[in-house]
Amino acid sequence: MGMPFLLSRLVLIIFVAHLAASKAAATRPGFIYTRAGGRCTPQFWSSRRESWPRMVPQRAAVSKVFGPGVFERYRSDVTLLESTTRNDDENAFAGLLKQASAALLNSYARKGFPYSAWEVKTLLIQALVSKEAAATQAKQFSAANEACD
Asked: Where in the sequence is the signal peptide annotated (predicted)?
């Protein structure tokens, strides 16, 4: 067998392997990034897939929405939108703000949500007394946000 024959066989094998690989790749989906969670989570509200309730604009400062009691824990210029996009959940106070912001939006936008707007605001202020209280309340808001539809 000559060298041209082996070379043509090698090219044919490479071509068939490439064709098989491209066909297999076309039949299975590639990696698709999606945000986890339902229609009530902080991730959902930060995605802006749905209009926010008029009572709480995205650019509203957290201090104006939740009251002056939040000045001790959060910057005065943090907006509701920023609070739903936070990734520092290991910080109890940041996690509380993230979940409370989503709970507040849900209280206005979702019928049957277990908290009213004033309850969300009151519970957030009350939970600012300690890291333990903040973490506990954040878990409760998170559970309500996850269970909501």
From this structure: 1-26
